Amino acid sequence: MSDAVLELKGVTKTYNAGQPNQIDVLRGIDLSISAGEVVALVAPSGAGKSTLLHIAGLLDTPTSGDVLLAGREMTRLNDRARTSARRDDVGFIYQFHHLLPEFSATENVTLPQLAAGTPRRAADARSQALLERVGVAHRAAHRPAELSGGEQQRVAFCRALANQPKLLLADEPTGNLDPETSERVFSTLLDLVRETGLSALIATHNLELAAKMDRQIRLDAGALRNA
């Protein structure tokens, strides 16, 4: 039995299929990420990396091919089952933090746990522990607008890990930060991922950051190859 947390088998994504303006975004993607493995996805703009991440994270469905999460086939699940799997097993981090502006840092990390059925006291305790781990516990009561860019992204990391997912997906998670802050924040993320034993697929343009991961893959013109 495979120990892969994420498997993509022959995944394609086509828009306007059969039309003169058909666009083949992904072309037969095969990818396997093992438990605890951190993989860098390097891709130029327009290569389809966001589409790939959305399909891997069950936010979109492939035109053909299979997506397996912890050995379970996801492609043919109904919307409710896919939503449940996404909530419980996948964490997302984006270039822009997308924190809820009206809530504090703690509340932003607690809310996904409440949605998953975690009791409030336990959710708040986990939120506090995560915020302490990334060095922003002293800002726990502050809203996103009162936090620096690096602090906001650290809170976003905590939110992504709040429900203890099996898989972390990140799309240019430090791309909106200056180089020095990006280096510090990314190191925090990588340490946290390795401590928790997560599998992760992290898209980045930064080759220095990519080199710190276990393996690099490149997406170019919809096709995947080793970097």
Chart the SSEs and their pairings.
Elements: E1 4-15, E2 23-34, E3 38-42, H1 49-56, E4 64-69, E5 72-73, H2 79-89, E6 90-93, H3 105-115, H4 120-133, H5 149-161, E7 167-171, H6 179-196, E8 199-203, H7 207-210, E9 215-220, E10 223-226
Parallel strand pairs: 3-8, 3-9, 6-7, 7-8
Antiparallel strand pairs: 1-2, 1-4, 4-5, 9-10
Largest sheet: 6 strands, mixed
- Separation of termini? 27 Å
Number of strands: 10
Low-pLDDT residue spans: none
Q: How many DSSP H or I helices?
A: 7
Output the CATH class name. Alpha Beta
Helix content: 25-40%
The CATH architecture category equals 3-Layer(aba) Sandwich
Strand content: 25-35%
- Overall structural class, as computed from helix and strand content, comes to alpha/beta
Q: How many domains?
A: 1
**What is the H-and-E element order?**
EEEHEEHEHHHEHEHEE
Average pLDDT across residues? 86
Quick one: CATH superfamily?
P-loop containing nucleotide triphosphate hydrolases
Spatial shape = globular
Computed over alpha carbons, the radius of gyration is 18 Å
Strand order of the largest sheet: 6-7-8-3-9-10
Oligomer designation: single chain
CATH fold node name: Rossmann fold
